[in-house]
Amino acid sequence: MPYQYITQPDDLSLFCASLSNQTEWIAIDTEFVRTDTYYPELSLIQVQSDSGIAAIIDPISINDLEPLWTILDNPKILKVFHSARQDLEVLYQVAGRLPQSIFDTQIAAVFLGYGDLVGLAKAVEYELDVQLPKDQTRTNWSQRPLSDEQLAYAFDDVRYLAPLYEKIRERLSQEQLQALEDDFSALLNVNLYHILPEKAGDKLKAAKHLKTKNLAICYALAEWRELYAQHNNKPKRWVLSDDSLIAIAKRPPKTVQALYKVPNIKASSVKTYGEEWITIIDEIFASPDTWPESPQKAQPPSPQEEVLLSLALALCQQVALDYNIQLPNLASKAQLLEQIRSPEKQHFIGWRHLLIEVPLQKIFNTESCLKVNNGHLSYN
Prior knowledge:
Layout: E1 4-6, H1 9-19, E2 25-33, E3 41-49, E4 54-57, H2 66-72, E5 78-81, H3 84-95, E6 102-104, H4 105-108, H5 120-128, H6 148-159, H7 161-171, H8 174-187, H9 212-232, H10 236-239, H11 242-250, H12 256-259, H13 267-286, H14 303-323, H15 333-341, H16 350-364, E7 370-373, E8 376-379
Parallel strand pairs: 1-4, 2-5, 5-6
Antiparallel strand pairs: 2-3, 3-4, 7-8
Helix pairs in contact: 1-2, 5-7, 8-16, 9-11, 9-13, 14-15
């Protein structure tokens, strides 16, 4: 299938104009590099329309991508991605805005039993019986010129994404498509991609086990690290890893020399930034009024709730087996307990709502019963 390699602004304008008339959807993918930078470097954008019009756009050669954004902003043209989260993040960081109207074939493939993290190559193999090449997986997409082989490899991502989307969509019920709309809307929440340094500590899972004073140190160091990484466009882990940051917060050193004893910390970072870190720690100790409040512990389940929780977990385990989903990615005990305690509220969205919450609501409202058929847990 032919495609146009676009490196000039006028060609981009003409290509996008050809899409805007009768196009209902486009398959889109990006290539980017983020090995030694904080922000991803957008290197290629691949596009194919429902009518087969296709192009690889070179954003390194073309500074103004506004003609493409005219298409991406158009809610009447559906944008089809596979594993959209990173593509959306890159596009947002470049343009400060997100496309409208998306469809993510990776998320949709959950209903086909491929799991919640199936790669494009596997999905194409399952649905189209085509094996995509893997010879360019380590390509540095920011280097120029790119070979014909590299461009062909990049184009395959939309060349096969387009028929994959058509195949998956025709296999889904209207109820499933409606549920997916919630998942896709959630992906277009700008807060997922707008990084606030003062909220950086919230992303550290190990932080939730810290005491309030230590949590304050963790948040302050995480904010410092985020600001440093943004201002210098360097990966956060280069200056201070998550493990080292948590270790400092757990046992706050009093001197720069003591920082050198933190496990796996970079001596060069201590030498360069150690004084700043100690100052941050001292300021936290001196300002207890700024420490975050200790989170309220959830009330543990009662003996009766434990029974219902076991029932809910059993259903989740069966769904996880049926759809090849990792159980932790399906639902947590805390979420299930919330549903048990407030069954009138909606606690899940999208495919999780349809696969987990709807059957549990029926079970808890005596509209359904569990059965075992040929060793398989089912409900009706």
